Amino acid sequence: DLAGFLAEMREEGRFLFADRLRAWQRVFGTRLTVRPMMRERLSGGCVVQDFLTFCGAPTGVSAVVEKIPQANGSLNPAGLAFLGELRRALKRRNPAPNPQRQQLLQRLATQMEAVPAFSEGRISLPEALRDEVRDAFAGDAARCDAELFGAPVFVPELERALSVPPAPAEDGAETETRRLTDLSLIWMDMMQAMQAQLQRAAQGGNG
């Protein structure tokens, strides 16, 4: 639910950086260096290599990071819809806080990132939310550019993100999501039944 997520982020101010960074600037002065985490601006396109390169700059040492994947895996709208529906279905069965449920969903999400049907493509904002996002973050982005970077950085990046056309709705997507959720729940019920049967057999029951 992108609208709900946006409302939550606005209330928390989670992605507003200007006041926070200016407070750090007052404490650390010129020792504070703010670097935008944008791949094209990072050394080697990697945040770890960029950090090590920055730290090693006074010594002339150049860091090379080879074992960190260059791509950040993520789920596409179909993958997120399925995972969200499964989470809600599991929570209806057991509303209490459940660390095992969270671990299961996290492991499932990691495996789904390797499945093209759940990972190819990207999330885009619905047209109706674009003005709300701009209203929520454009002012802070402009302040960061003016007060911290001294150049256009966040504002053009925000506008670039907002310019991505919305993904077309897929026919039957909701039905497919429900079908996958039902199949997942059936599979989980079968696994739990088999586990219970094995436990009874191990305890000498009839199974």
Walk me through what this model shows.
- It is built from nine helices and no strands.
- With 207 residues, the chain is mostly helical.
- The mean pLDDT is 83.
Give the arrangement of secondary structure elements:
Blueprint: H1 2-12, H2 18-28, H3 47-56, H4 77-93, H5 99-112, H6 116-119, H7 127-149, H8 154-162, H9 173-202
Helix pairs in contact: 1-7, 4-5, 4-9, 7-8
Question: Summed up, what is this model?
Answer:
Helices cover 62% and strands 0% of the residues. By secondary structure, it is an all-alpha fold.
Largest sheet: none
The span between the termini is 44 Å
Radius of gyration: 23 Å
The beta-strand count equals 0
What structural class is derived from the secondary structure elements? mainly alpha
Compressed to H and E, one letter per element, the order equals HHHHHHHHH
Helix content estimate: 55-70%
Shape: extended
> Helical element count?
9
Low-confidence stretches: none
Overall residue-averaged pLDDT value: 83
Q: Which percent range describes the beta-strand content? A: under 5%
